[in-house]
Each structure stands twice: as C-alpha cells, then as structure tokens.
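Exercise 3.2. Students should predict the tertiary structure of the chain below and write it as structure tokens, then compare their answer with the key that follows.

Predict this chain's 3D structure.
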Amino acid sequence: MTAGEAYYLMKPFGLAEPGSLSEALALLAESADGAARPLAGGTALALMMKPGILQPDRLISLRRIEACYSSIEQDEGGALLIGALTPLRQIELSDLVRGHAPVINLALKRLSNVRVRNVATIGGHLAHGDPHLDLPPVLIALGAEITISGPSGERTIAVEDLFRSYLETSLELGELITSVRIPSQGARRAAYIKHTTRSADDWPALGIAVSLDVDGETIRDARVAIGAASEIPLRLKSVAQVLAGKSLDDRVLEAAGEAASGETTVHSDARGSAPYKRELIKVFTGRAIRKAMDAAVGGQS
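Answer key:
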C-alpha cells in the first residue's frame, strides 16, 4: 500500500432476502440494537460500510418484497404515488412523473451519474438524510409526503419533517419508508436550481427549489426549499411571506434572497465556505423564483 491509499477491511455480515414487507419488518424488529440494516439500492450504505462508519451484523435486502413498492402510479385524487424501492432512473424516465411534476425528471438528470441512478432508490435517497441530496428540496417544494411502516404500524409525514440533523432522520428503529406521495400540482409552476463548484452532476454547494401558485403576474402562494447549504433540507417560510401577493420585480427578488439568507443557518464544507454559500443563497433564490415564474402554466423547469 502506497502513501495516500486507504485500506478497508469490511466487517463480515449476514444477508437475508425476505419476500414481503411484513417479513422484512419482522426481521428488522429482531435486531433491537440496530445491528441489522435494510438494504435497498445500497449506494450510500456501501460507502458507509467500507470505512467502518456502519458495521451491521446483518443486511435485510428489500429487492424481493412486493412489486407495489417499486411502482409509479396516480391515485383517484390526482396525486402521484412512488414506491420507495423505485430506482431514481425509472423515475427520471417516467412519463407519468413528467406529466405530473417534470421538475423531478429534470432534477434527476444531474443527480450523480446514470450508474448510480440505475441502482439508488427514492426511499433510500431520502432515508440517508444527507443534506446535499437533490430530491429533498424539490419534494418539499412540491408538498410531498412519505408513508412509513414499522413495528407500531403505518404513519405519514411531510418530507420536510423527515430530517432532524446531519445524516439523522425521524425514522425510528425498525421503520422503513414505503412510498412517496406528491399531491396534484394543478397550475403551479416549479423550478430547481443546482449550483455546483465541481462537475455538473456533483453534490451541490446549493440546491434550491421553488413552487408557485400564480394569478396573472401576482404570486398567491409560494413554497421555497433549500438544500446543501444548510445542515438539513429546509422550507423557507420567510421567503413565502415576502412573495405572497406580490408581482415580481428586482426589489421583491432581492428581498426574497435576503430573507432566504437570513432564515438559513449556513455551514461550511468542501463545496464552499459559509460566507460563500450565503451569497449563493441571496443570488440563486431570486433566480429560482424567476425561473419558476417564467415556466409555462402548469409547467416546471
């Protein structure tokens, strides 16, 4: 081994492949100390196991459970239902998703690379809890919810309520995300801007998503969410207050950027210092709002 190389010896582990969700939950419940971990796409889990950050005794593979957990459907009320085991690439290519919320398809095109998107699942993407991920701010802006199953039954929470701190979510021991529900967007307009300091598909220094309900040139309602610059993905309620009832001009966009910067606790990392990211927030908040406003009615970019 030469200087600069890392050598990892992964701890041996067992593997179970249950054939149903109930069986998977039962196997997780047997491990009260968290020594068993669910395995979906494994793209994040493998990276954490190799250096020993996670050392599970057993992996519970979810790839053989019911097909409904890897499907994309629309319910009678017009909401989009995405099974938690649906690969990101399948979502990216879905015409049903594109007709419902094309901002999701567009955001996925620059999420990592196609090899990762072929394997990574939307449930695992959210459960990982990394603030640099692209979909959380997009889903928060769209008002999405997740359904969670576990030892105490089933519960539903807003995506914005999933994240607690860096790599920490509100999932309890033995719980699994089973689906994502995105309500009908009607004539809302949405956009997502990802700013990177490296390659276009790298983790962002800032990700910001905007969804607008517009009456002519007036914004009736806005949902703005941010990722990467903060410890967790956040919905910026102060920006919505600035925009409510307003028509866009430079002064309104500047005020929105200032509100976004003031509401966010910004953290430095390898993709930029806190002062740098704060300036990004001020600039790109306005750009994302303008981009959403300029989208065709019912459209997203």
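Discussion points: The mean pLDDT is 92. The radius of gyration is 20 Å.
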